[in-house]
Amino acid sequence: MLLVVLALLVWIAAWWLNARLANGAQAGTRAVQLLVPAIFGGTLLIVWELLVRGLGVPLVILPAPSVIAERFAGSIPILWADFSQTILKGALGGYIIGCGAAFVMAILVDRSDFLRRGLLPVGNFVAALPIVGTAPILVMWFGFDWQSKAAVVVVMVFFPMLVNTVAGLRETDQMQRDLMATYAASYWQSLFKLRLPAALPFIFNGLKISTTLALIGAIVAEFFGSPTVGMGFRISTSVGQLALDMVWAEIVVAALAGSAFYGLMAGLEKVLTFWHPSQR
Amino acid sequence: MKTFFAVLTVVAGIIGVWYLACVPMNIKGVLDAAEREGEQVTPATAKERRDASALGLVANNRFAMTRVWSVDRPRLPAPHQVAVELWQTTVEKKVTSKRSLIYHGKVTLTATLLGFGIGTLAGILLAVGIVHSKVMDMSVMPWAIVSQTIPIIALAPMIIVVLYSIGVQGLLPKAIIAAYLSFFPVVVGMVKGLRSPDHMQLDLLKTYNASTNHGFWKLRLPSSLPYLFASLKIGIAASLVGAIVGELPTGAVAGLGARLLAGSYYGQTVQIWSALFAAAILAAALVALLGLMERALLARMGVRS
């Protein structure tokens, strides 16, 4: 009971501290803007730990953060093997193939107004569908190893990327295109010097949406059959053994990988589209 | 009108590619069946055919060409096979039958809608809190954004098993996963929407001596609706995916996810494809319904679209 009360006190104290920081004079500075969410996240972890211990929640329902951290530190080799199987081979492989194919397709489609008109609604429609459902079919076609996971990822990221790139290639206005024409620029010159740079914010939007989709596709596809390694495999078998600390360790890996992947794309965007109003 | 024809052309193109793809995908199965029937096939045994390229097989066995579209358990079913299966399992079966897709669709749909309702409500409440409290904004919002980059769906099997171990099963675990998936898009979209009124409008209300409460109901809430609906459309699609994935790990007996799983266990490809299309139609219908609601609501509010 003492621990539960302590958890409540920690929560109130941290909230009071955050309220002081957020409404104080320093609220606009970067340090405070990072500190406040960090305090909030840390408080959540402490409260979680104290509540689990205080209420005696069994391990099969919710393990405490310290238990998860211990398991994480103790099974780095397994986690690394799962990570390289699911993320590096499945998700990343599929991501590169899918986004690359969508990009090339978008440039081809963009040459024909008729095709573009037809493809955009269809692409938007497909992008909203539960494409994860193709996983059992693709696992049947490409076998249990990472190739089938990469195939699921390709299908999942293709349409969001295609729609965004096609929309981005439309971003230049008539004046800019006319200017390129007065320079006697060829199709490829105006593509590389004007239209692709103008499309970059859209392309990166597609790339950023696709990072999450890629991880989801690679993990969920493993629920339908996988070799005895991989994050989805580990999650579903550990759940079966009620080893929830292992499941949480995998979720931590997925969260870190997802944020890092997204962060990488966002960072790249910042470097390449420094001229865009949203980045200034 | 021009767009309509263009879309029609693209759809026709996709169906055409699908039919063509059936030929190399199914040719080996067709030839194996033909050999068992005692027909002349080149090369003669299944072992030799395994290493042969699919296109070469097609060229050597022209007679089998037309059969690839009517195989019993094809690797890739032809579009009309899927359409026939869809028709048979929706219209011709009784709605209460275990083989009716309408029955399975209803199971998934209830979980989706329940979860979507919970997730949307919670998301809107949190967004209102974030907009009105600076502390919440600074501490919760970064986590809400980061959480969108995490494959939350990896949690699905665990949520189901944990809830099962404390005695909750059936509809609710799936609904919770669906709620979780629709929650964050709604929070992010709604916060953006509630912040969308510009300074001029907020200042105008201030000159009217309007309270925060008035400002919320008369300005912030109405102007957030377009943003809300945009994220609702994302949210409901995510909810459906959540409900389907939530059916996978427990080996559920009912629902579209269960149909997918059963189909993949027993090699019933036509069943997988028809469940997939049922899910796609359901998703499209839900998104379209939200679109109609949006249009009606915005028209009543006098927003020019």
From TrEMBL, chain A:
Residues 101-269 form the ABC transmembrane type-1 domain. The chain crosses the membrane at residues 34-52, 59-80, 92-110, 122-144, 150-169, 202-226, 246-268. It is found in: Cell membrane. Keywords: Cell membrane, Membrane, Transmembrane, Transmembrane helix, Transport. Its main location: membrane. CDD domains: TM_PBP2. GO terms for cellular component: plasma membrane. It is a multi-pass membrane protein. InterPro entries: MetI-like, MetI-like_sf. The keyword Nucleotide-binding does not apply. It comes from the Bacteria. GO terms for biological process: transmembrane transport. Pfam families: BPD_transp_1. SUPFAM superfamilies: MetI-like. This is Putative aliphatic sulfonates transport permease protein SsuC. It comes from Tritonibacter multivorans.
UniProtKB/TrEMBL annotation, chain B:
Residues 101-294 form the ABC transmembrane type-1 domain. The chain crosses the membrane at residues 107-131, 143-166, 172-191, 265-292. Coiled coil: none annotated. It holds the Pfam family BPD_transp_1. It is a multi-pass membrane protein. This is Putative aliphatic sulfonates transport permease protein SsuC. One of its GO terms (cellular component) is plasma membrane. InterPro entries: MetI-like, MetI-like_sf. It is found in: Cell membrane. The gene is ssuC_3. Keywords: Cell membrane, Membrane, Transmembrane, Transmembrane helix, Transport. Signal peptide: none annotated. GO terms for biological process: transmembrane transport. Belongs to the binding-protein-dependent transport system permease family.
